[in-house]
Amino acid sequence: MEDFLFAFLNWDIVTQAWPILWRGFAYTLALSAMTVPLGLAGGVALALLATSGPWWVRLLAAGWTDFFRAIPPLVLLVFLYAGLPFAGIDVGAWGAVALGFLLNTGSYYGEVLRAGIESVPRGQMEAARSTGLTRGQALAHVVLPQAVRNVLPDLVSNTLEVVKLTSIASVVALPELLFQARQAQNATYNATPIVAAAIAYFLLLWPLVRLVSRLENRAMAGR
Amino acid sequence: MTSTAPIIDARGVWKRFGGLAVLKGVDLSVAERELVFVIGPSGSGKSTFLRCLNRLEEPDDGSIQVDGIELLSPKTDINAARRRIGMVFQSFNLYPHMTARQNVMLALRKVLGQNKDQAATVAARALDRVGLAERMDHYPAQLSGGQQQRVAIARAIALEPRVMLFDEPTSALDPELVGGVLNVMRELRQDGMTMVVVSHEMAFAKAAADRVVFMADGQKLEEGPPAQIFEAPQHERTRAFIRQIDRH
Amino acid sequence: MDGLNNFIFSFFNLKVMAQYLPLVAQGLALTVVLALLIVVCGLALGLLLAVLRSFGIRPLNWLIIFTVDVFRALPPLVIIVLLFFGLPAAGMSVSGFAATWLSLTLVLMAFAEEIFWAGITAVPKGQWEAARSTGLTFLQTLRMVVLPQALRITIPPLTNRTIAITKGTALGSVVGVAEILGAAQSAMSFSANPSPLTLGAIAYLVLFVPVVALGRWIETRFAWKR
What we know:
The structure holds three protein chains of three kinds.
Chain A: H1 2-8, H2 11-52, H3 55-70, H4 73-83, H5 92-119, H6 122-130, H7 135-150, H8 152-165, H9 177-188, H10 192-221
Chain B: E1 8-17, E2 20-30, E3 35-39, H1 46-52, E4 61-66, E5 69-70, H2 78-82, E6 85-88, H3 100-110, H4 116-129, H5 145-157, E7 163-167, H6 175-190, E8 194-198, H7 202-208, E9 211-216, E10 219-224, H8 226-231, H9 236-247
Parallel strand pairs in B: 3-8, 3-9, 6-7, 7-8
Antiparallel strand pairs in B: 1-2, 1-4, 4-5, 9-10
Chain C: H1 2-11, H2 14-54, H3 58-73, H4 76-86, H5 96-122, H6 125-133, H7 138-166, H8 180-191, H9 195-223
Helix pairs in contact in C: 2-5, 2-8, 2-9, 3-5, 4-5, 5-7, 6-7, 7-9, 8-9
């Protein structure tokens, strides 16, 4: 038991590694603050193309979405980070993460928002257009607000997944929480920093998990 | 009525869905301040025709002039034209995420460019006209079907349209709620609004319409004053339709 | 033209691809095995937890809910790293394969439990009452009346979640599992050419595009009854 505590919950190590872990935590927050809006923007664009473009644009959008949902995000990231430089395109770790999340997360958000837009009755668009609103105005003020509300559980749940996914940025050496924890572990030969990082992730994301769970139960009961 | 140009002038309107012709060259002209009732069996194309009059359906052929503007011309700014053509739908189509007042205000702000205070005042006046001044801040889900339809009418009249189109405005309502909506329509008529109404409310048609148009199979079969259409229809299809309606 | 040649040489180098095809194919086989193990174990454990939860034993339910929350909140890569690099510090060592399998199984278990449970609670109370009034036991009612209805509505969300978690097998490359990405990455460093990575991406597409399309189909197929 003492060995276990020494290896996993060593308070001395926590205090030692604290500054590094804290910086990693802040970095994770910053990464999330970048990737969530980026993914949402990509998602809105994809959803609009998939619902209101001509048939070939819709088909293209569906294919694009399925492509990036089939490729594991880590594969995409490694490709952008380690593969592209061979062709003389070096986007760097930040660029690879930003681009990777735009493509991957955007596809997921896009699929959720597409379902949301399709759940809004056609009469809503018609009523808005009949009062003289343009298609863009009708989308922005009438259709999208309802679409977002209809798929809110999926949107929040997807956002939770995006924040969790920022941990793969450690693979391309961005100093986020998991990366910093690994560094600290290497320096101290002790697993405590990783346990501390896990606890930090849990404390950060538990409220979101509770929220998703509540929203999902309500949606399922409403069927 | 004969001296002034018609405010709606539709000629030879064709509409096909796939291979099926739903409208086969329909003509209709409506004079200012006139209330025209369009009746006919389901599948006759009457709703499709009404929806062509503000280009919610794109006709395949023909011409439609409203207030002197050719709707089907590519040069026409359809959004500007539509604000002069109010439309009321069978299923209300109120925006569920906005209060009654916000429903009315949206186009006032975005299409007419009014500021928030102006739009709020105009919306309040429109809602007062349909007898819902007290319900302005309710959401659609908190209103009865009849009240929702009156909000929808307020949403259209707030834009001060030249013409109002009604697509079966009472058929989704419980019988006891129909009267309130018809009263609002009657008042609109008294105020001189030009209206085209697709509906099965025959008693209302007899009392209020200037002219009744009977459509079947995508064509206008006959038209005339209500007394003529209901009491002495010329066409066999019209007679059969009127007989069937009367039995109810 | 030079740029295009360079691009093809880098990413679609047939010679390199042919050379490392067997390695990536082995990776593909490993990914399939890993994915199947995760799906079977994760779904079974998730269903088990949901059924246990339906007994309504308070302390047990709190434990289940907490466990599920933990594995929904933690990034899978963090769990994998914790098991792989952490356990040796306590004198227990696990292979990268076992760490990946166990981690993703626990994550799928958590999500599946939540979805199964939502499905069970969505079945109207009247179904329970009707079945119990005909003399069926609690378990009979659950098995023959409630679960068949619950499973039907859980299929679309479960399919999507299972696909997403199975794609996490790529995370195994971080702890040295030679699945598709791991194999492709080592081939890339041997050959100093990223074409094996293209091969790996193709392997994932071959594996997952049909599954994603199936998920989309299931979603529309099961959606109309709502």
